[in-house]
Amino acid sequence: MSGKWIAMCVFAMIMIGCTAQNAVPATPPATATTKAGGDVTPTPTKTIADESPTAKIISTMNPTPVVSKGTASGTPAASAQSTPSAPMTGITARLNEPFTLKLGQWATLPDANDTRVSFTTLLEDTRCPLDVNCVQAGKVRVGVSVESGGKLAQFDLSSMPQDYRNVGAFNGYLVQFVEIAPARKTVNQPIPLGDYQLTLRVSAGSLDVAQARINEPFTLKLGQSVPLAGTDARVTFESVQQDSRCPARALCATSGAAEVVIAVQREDKTDRLTLSTNRDGAIKRSALFDTAGVALNALTPYPQNEFASKEIAPKEYQATLVVVNYVPSSSSTAPRITTTSVDACPDLTRGAASEILDEAVHEQPTEMILFPPPATTVSLHGICGYGSIAYNPNRIPQVTVPFVSPASVRSDRAVIAAKLTDQRRQEQLLSIVSALDAANPRGPSNLYMKLLTGYSAGAWSRDALGEFPDAARGAANVHVESVSGMGESAVWVWREFEGGRYAALVAQKGETLFVVTALTTAQRTKENVMAAMTTVMQKMLRN
Predict the structure, then answer these.
(1) Which helix (H) or strand (E) holds 217?
(2) How far apart are CA 337 and CA 329, in angstroms?
(3) DSSP class per residue in 219-281
(4) Alpha-carbon span 489 to 497, nearest angstrom
(5) Kind of pairing, strands 91-92 and 106-109?
(6) 361-408 confidence digits (pLDDT tens)
(7) pLDDT for 320-359, tens place per residue?
């Protein structure tokens, strides 16, 4: 019998290896549809498990480390060329005390009902090496599994605060990402996988809330609903559309995925978002807000030995969610944006806008703004420009990164230009300085406060352009310089951020402020954008 079992195992390993190397398309595992309070209806599909008894070989209890490749911010990710060679042994940890795991290692917590936490996967390491100047600091994403009370959960945790993925909640315990070592020293020397050390902390608690808050993870049971603090909205975990995640102790052709429906209700409107446990579909923008989206951080429990349709009861499902980057679309406590469609821009042609962006733009121009300042007392008036045809409806604007506003302008990038003699002068200066301050949150905001005070008093800050270079001092990935030969004074602003570039060329002549502002792709260079914007500015100054 032992010889036959060994032969079956070898055969299964050969078949799986061939499938991976030849990239044969695979059929997803069995799926299921679950409604709140309803039954689970399995929908069988053909899988490896249907074809061979060897396909469902139970793995050893020790986790197998897995590495996923990825890149971001132009920085190479961790290499998957090596794996820890020595067999892993578990450690003992305690509640509320940090503990460190190597890739593939686990910790057991006796004072947490023998809950077991494992560092199973290195998903991504795009941290900026110490010998490189990067646009973004990058991040590390890790896969962590938690076994507690006979159930299993899997979490995708991140070191980046803006991901809101530094904690997982399961069975009355919180697992928090503390730090990861070592640092990436040089771009040419990937960190051996055996050297990674992940520090975690487990504490008693949950993410159950009576009221959800913006940018803070929270959990909902299937069918549960909570209000969103500071808004008139509610968020409901409405249903599990399907759950085809491959059980942890089974061998499947694909990893599978689960899809859930999250309903966002506001006044008499409901926006249903279908979110996936696959990262590409884990976050979607809600049409009920200008810049808000809902992200699915985790769906627990995770199937262990059977597909979810057999192993997980509807009442067991719990989704970890976060409402991100919320800016009220109509509120007395937020900047108000006035915008209208126009027949033509008096100071900007469609051809010039397309040249600045280096991409196709809409035929119809629109009044818009490219970075709404955070002040609650500012009533913004858009200025005329052209938006890109390129548009991702699920893109979630970030409050610290320039974006096209309002959301009714269906463009990812845009150019605006105008000669201003009214209060819009101060509004545009506030917008540009806000873009600088967002890149330098710890820097001085003296110029911003000066402009805001002038705006509130209805005054025009005539000498503001000369203070722009000082306002940008210390800001990361920002270049500001005074420009000669354009009116009485002029300034050029360039900001680089992940996924795009922000540029502003501003000149003053008498009581008139001349403004050209653009939001472009990350592929555009400072020199090319400035040259194209200078042509527009010189034409404006002549006319």
Answers:
(1) none
(2) 9
(3) EEETT-EEEBTTSSEEEEEEEEEEE-PPPTTS--SS---EEEEEEEEETTEEEEEEEESSGGG
(4) 27
(5) parallel
(6) 999 899 988 987 765 567 778 899 999 999 887 777 776 788 888 877
(7) 999 987 554 443 344 555 555 666 798 999 999 999 999 9
